[in-house]
């Protein structure tokens, strides 16, 4: 028997620490309404051999999720979205990641920008109304096997110049191993992603050559297949 789609069966999570290892918190407390639109770009034309009939092509689009509700202080998602550090800044301060799990179990991961953040409004004796638009940046990542597990990565100065020492928690599983990638900006892999090209094998203890201020991602892979199971990201601290 078919099952009706209910909005409360959609789970939204936002990364509140986008510059380091992700901290996923649920988006829901205080938000009473969710709407999304693809904002499609449509090319329409009538050709000479169509006898006056037109045709349309969808040539692009951008997904925008709009959330409205009331302000709840102490909720991690709301406190992040409506913080002064996010609301009163531009550029990278507004960028993070969104995870969505639909009621049917389908999951997506999206790089997003927080826009049109409105905090406060309404009658004097009423609750404080809030609104935020979550703009998708590019295409989402479809997560097939599930969410990638989270690693907490700590970077401190290494033993020699230009080196960093990493600490990773939790420890890897017996049949798994670590790989890493470092650059000015590094994307986290998705669950089951093949981590070969661009990834360097790491034994979990050796110092790594990396630039202070760059990002470093450590991924735990199945040793036999190099498929990602857990990952974490951190800002590098190297010995000067």
List keywords for this structure.
mainly beta; Elongation Factor Tu (Ef-tu), domain 3; globular; 8-stranded antiparallel sheet; 240 residues; 47% strand; 4% helix
Question: Can you give a write-up of this model?
Answer:
By secondary structure, the protein is mainly β. It folds into two domains: 7-143, Elongation Factor Tu (Ef-tu), domain 3, CATH 2.40.30; 149-235, no CATH class. The protein is 4% helix and 47% strand. The chain has helices at residues 76-81, 84-87; strands at 11-15, 24-27, 31-37, 41-46, 54-60, 64-70, 95-101, 107-119, 129-136, 141-143, 149-150, 152-157, 163-169, 176-183, 200-202, 208-209, 215-222, 227-235. Strands 1, 2, 3, 6, 7, 8, 9 and 10 form an eight-stranded antiparallel β-sheet that branches. A five-stranded mixed β-sheet has the order 11-18-17-14-15, with no helix packed on it. A hairpin with a 4-residue loop joins strand 17 (215-222) and strand 18. It starts with 10 loop residues before the first strand and ends in a 5-residue tail after the last strand. The mean pLDDT is 90.
The CATH class assignment of the largest domain is Mainly Beta
Instruction: Note the beta-strand portion.
Output: over 45%
Span between termini: 64 Å
Class by alpha and beta content: mainly beta
Shape: globular
- Overall pLDDT metric: 90
- Write the H/E string, N to C: EEEEEEHHEEEEEEEEEEEE
Number of helices: 2
The strand count comes to 18
CATH architecture of the largest domain: Beta Barrel
Rg, Cα atoms, Å: 22 Å
The CATH topology label of the largest domain is Elongation Factor Tu (Ef-tu), domain 3
Helix content: under 10%
Main beta sheet, described?
A: 8 strands, antiparallel
Whole-number tally of structural domains: 2
């Amino acid at each position: 028997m078919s099952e009706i789609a209910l909005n409360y069966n959609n789970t939204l999570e936002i990364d509140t620490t986008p510059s380091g290892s992700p901290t996923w918190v649920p988006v829901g407390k205080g938000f009473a309404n969710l709407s999304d639109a693809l904002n499609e770009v449509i090319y329409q034309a009538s050709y000479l051999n169509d006898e006056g009939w037109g045709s349309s092509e969808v040539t692009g689009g951008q997904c925008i999720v709009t959330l409205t509700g009331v302000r709840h202080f102490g909720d991690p998602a709301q406190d992040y979205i409506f913080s002064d550090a996010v609301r009163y800044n531009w550029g990278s301060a507004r960028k993070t990641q969104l995870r969505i799990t639909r009621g049917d179990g389908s999951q997506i991961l999206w790089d997003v920008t927080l826009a049109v953040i409105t905090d406060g409004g309404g009658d004097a004796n009423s609750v404080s109304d809030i609104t935020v638009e979550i703009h998708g940046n590019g295409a989402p990542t479809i997560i097939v096997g599930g969410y990638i597990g989270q690693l907490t990565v700590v970077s401190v100065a290494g033993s020699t110049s230009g080196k960093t020492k990493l600490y990773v928690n939790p420890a890897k599983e017996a049949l798994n191993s670590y790989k890493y990638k470092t650059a000015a900006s590094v994307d986290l892999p998705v669950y089951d992603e093949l981590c070969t090209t661009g990834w360097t094998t790491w034994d979990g203890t050796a110092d790594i050559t990396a630039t202070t201020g760059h990002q470093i991602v450590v991924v735990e892979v199945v040793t036999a297949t190099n498929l990602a199971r857990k990952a974490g990201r951190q800002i590098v601290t190297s010995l000067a």
